[in-house]
Design brief:
About 70% of the residues lie in helices and about 5% in strands. The protein is mainly alpha-helical and about 140 residues long. A two-stranded antiparallel ribbon has the order 1-2. It is elongated and about 50 Å long.
């Protein structure tokens, strides 16, 4: 159970740092999020709260309700990363020509950190850590 607790804390810290980082980029640096960024935020912001509450309550059943959010956000981040890398045609990108681009220069932080890749890494790590947390049924058998 110690490993499960550490995995839960690790997942929460990743979600918390990601949420604070996104807020810093948006509110302090003044970058307007694109459409795909908003969908990823919709998944990441609740994860920071849900995983934090699960850490406080030592709720190891969190995988049941946090993993779908992490996988959904990760799927959006994967689509965004493929679009940013040029593997997906810009013709099917959801961003409008009047709003921020999903694949433009605004998606790079400090000149070398692509935001879609950071998001994909965060959702991937959270999902991986949640897989290591046993479900309630698995907890009862041990």
């Amino acid at each position: 159970m110690i490993f499960a607790d550490r995995a839960l804390i690790g997942a929460w810290l990743i979600a918390l740092v990601s949420t604070l980082g996104v807020l810093f980029v948006g509110e302090i640096m003044g970058r307007t999020p694109c459409v795909l960024c908003w969908y990823q935020r919709i998944a990441m912001f609740p994860l920071a709260i849900i995983l934090g509450v699960a850490c406080y309550l030592s709720d190891l059943n969190v995988r049941r309700y946090a993993l779908p959010l992490a996988i959904g956000g990760g799927s959006m981040a994967l689509w965004h990363s493929l679009l940013f890398a040029g593997f997906i045609s810009e013709a099917i990108q959801p961003c409008t020509q009047n709003g921020p681009s999903c694949s433009g220069e605004g998606q790079v932080l400090f000149g070398y950190l692509p935001l879609p890749y950071l998001s994909l890494a965060a959702f991937g790590l959270i999902s991986l850590l949640l897989f290591f947390i046993p479900t309630g049924h698995e907890n009862e058998s041990s």
